[in-house]
Every structure is written in C-alpha cells, then in structure tokens.
Design brief:
The protein is an alpha+beta fold. It contains nine helices and twelve strands. The protein has two domains: 178 residues, Beta Polymerase, domain 2 (2-Layer Sandwich), CATH 3.30.460; 110 residues, Phosphorylase Kinase, domain 1 (2-Layer Sandwich). A hairpin with a 2-residue loop joins strand 7 and strand 8. Helix 4 packs across helix 5 and helix 5 runs antiparallel to helix 6.
Length: 303
C-alpha cells in the first residue's frame, strides 16, 4: 500500500459547520469517546437495515493524543453496492454528500446544524479500501505505541502554535513525523517518482495539481514539470533509494546569503524531505537547472 500524509484536513474546510476554520489542537479529552458513541448509535439507527459498522478514527480516537476537538467518523460498508441507499438515508437525516473532496476511496458528507452532537466529519468507505486501511492502521498503531503517540502530539501542538491560521502550513509542518510513523507501521512504501512528486506538490506545497511529467536530468535526479491551477512549476527530485544523491541539504552559506531560488513548502521549508526522495520547487525550468549546477546544495553522503 502506498500512502503519504494527505491534504484531507484542508478538505475538511468544505464540511459545513464542522469544517476546520482555525487550527486548534487541545489536550486529549476522555469525553470524546462517549460523544462518539452517541453518534455511532444515532448513525446505526439511521442505517439499521444496512450492513455497516461505524468506526471512530482520527486523533480523537487515540486515548492520550492531543487533537482538534472534532470527531472523525467512518461508516464502513460491507458491500459498496449499498452506497446509494446509505447516501439516501444520510441525506434524509441532514447529511449532504459532497463527493470525495480529492481523496479517492472516501465519500464525505456535510451537515448544517446538529447541536445535540459534538462537531464531526463523516465519511463513507468500503470494507477493504486502502483509505480505510490507512485510517485504521494509523489509529491502531498510535493506540498501541505511546512513544509514537506522544511524538505525534508534540508535532501537532508545535505546528498548531506556529500556524494557527494556516491549515496547509500546519499539515506540512507535521508531515515529517507522520512520514516516520507511517514507515514504522507499514503504511509508507516506495512509490513511483511521478506518484510521490504529485503528492508532494499537493500536500507539501499546497498547490492544486492538474498535470505532471518527469524526466531524468542526472543520475538519481529528475525534473518534474507541474501544471497547477496556480501556474506552472518545476520540481527537482533527488532519489534516495537508487543513489546516495538523495541525501542533500542546502549550503548554509548560500542560505544565509539568501541566494537560493527554491520556493518554500507551505510551512516554510526550503527543501521538502520524504523517506524516498528530497525535493526542491522552482518557478522556472532555468532556475531549477541553474540550481542543479550550482553550489547552493551539498550531497550529504559526500560530507
């Protein structure tokens, strides 16, 4: 299964009254579990004739984990052929279908006003889907590994403190820790360069990708042309798996002098690091190729 931190928290801004307007991360509240149970029973009552189960996912589902005080709820269908009936039942009870919001395999629903319940995000997924596996694997790993739970909590609290008004920067700032945990729990496996580069453009640089093509410009280094709704950009990628050239860093002298032409990630990182490649983004192909041939970067494996 190929997975990486996604922009799903940004997509939650589309979920009506429960959408994320401000990044607020608070200490774990034991009341979150019974508040989820209230919603679980309510949803099962709505869908009583359907073969479904209701899962509590996301950070509020992990005891001891700091979280935004909004429940994440997955309705899991044993048979996806039942989706239209489930959608109809939900819509009859105030939940409107808004599509996958850019995340395949997960159908989102918004609501207007349900003051009797804790604010929540509601999704419908099929049993065995990759997205459901990601939700459950990450939740169960954090429940069973308090050291990773606490590591993630510190990253969330720090990111929320730094970027209280910028959800994209908040997501990017905690992505490195999620990468680490994904590797340990088996969620993050090597991806094709095109797939990984596309995810980086969307989730780390917060751009809306339309089309991308990559080509090799040097052994272990590729240049990807990304057409986005915000314009055209060029992404250099140093492969960490097939060559040591992936272990790169910005030359500190160049950085101190403000010479590097790289564009920052959403949280202000000059380079974008992932477990399998390191990326740098540029406004033009000439900037990218000039950087490639410059002394702005160093190969750490040769230091």
């Amino acid at each position: 299964m190929n997975s990486m931190p996604t922009n799903e928290e940004t997509s939650k801004e589309s979920l009506g009254s429960s959408g994320t307007k401000k990044v607020e991360v608070v200490p774990y509240d034991p009341a979150w579990q019974p508040r989820f149970e209230e919603l679980r029973l309510y949803l099962l009552g709505i869908l009583k004739a359907q073969d479904v189960r209701v899962e509590h996912v996301g950070s509020t589902s992990v005891p001891g984990l700091a979280a935004k005080p909004i429940l994440d709820i997955d309705i899991v269908l044993e048979n996806w052929a039942d989706f239209e009936m489930v959608k109809a039942r939900l819509e009859q009870n105030g939940y409107n279908h808004v599509g996958d919001l850019g995340i395949a395999g997960r159908e989102a629903f918004k609501y207007g006003d349900k003051p009797q319940f804790m604010p929540h995000h509601l999704y419908v997924l099929s049993e065995g889907s990759d997205e459901l596996k990601r939700h459950l694997t990450f939740r169960d790993w954090l429940r069973a590994h308090p050291e990773d739970r606490d590591l993630y909590a510190r990253a969330k609290l720090s990111a929320a403190q730094r970027f209280p008004e910028d959800i994209g920067a908040y997501i990017d700032a905690k992505s490195g820790i999620i990468f680490e945990i994904y590797q340990r729990c088996g969620l993050y496996l090597p991806q094709s360069l095109l797939e990984l580069a596309g995810s980086v453009i969307i989730n780390r640089y917060n751009l809306r990708l339309m089309e991308m093509a990559c080509r090799s410009v040097r052994p272990g280094v590729s240049l990807c042309e990304a057409r986005t709704q915000e314009g055209k950009f060029y992404l250099l990628a140093w492969d960490k798996i097939s060559t040591p050239a992936g272990e790169i860093a910005i030359n500190q002298d160049a950085l101190a002098a403000g010479l590097t032409p790289t564009l920052s990630t959403a949280s202000g990182q000059v380079l974008c690091g992932t477990p399998f490649a390191t990326f740098a983004l540029f406004e033009s192909e000439s900037d990218a190729l000039a950087f490639m041939d410059s002394r702005f970067w160093i190969n750490q494996s040769n230091v």
